[in-house]
Amino acid sequence: MLRPLSSAKGCVIVMYKIGLIGDRDTIMGFRALGLDTYEVITREDTAAALQSVMKEDYALIFMTERTYALVPDLLREFRERSLPVINIIPDNRGNLGLGMKRMRSMVEKAVGADILFKEEGK
Fold this sequence. Notes:
By secondary structure, the protein is α/β, with parallel strands linked by helices. The chain has helices at residues 24-32, 43-55, 65-70, 72-77, 98-111; strands at residues 4-8, 11-14, 17-22, 36-39, 58-64, 85-89.
């Protein structure tokens, strides 16, 4: 349940949280920035962390690509929700391209064409 920070004359300001689900090495920097972090290793850890953040007041969740690769089926269940937005990011071991692939898919769905990675001549 979201708690309003203040309300005056019908205006309600709500504070959402930002979180990160990933491996220990990747989340340490984000923890230092004040984000809520969930350290995961296995699919079960990741599923539990995902279920936990879905029950709370998160507006944005960052997931590392390797973490995302463990639970793509679970994330399909949450696609219909407006919040939280789940953003896939590379971890400290490098980029797998999953985040870009997902972004391309979302943009194609939204505008009907691949405008981000369109190569000339195609």
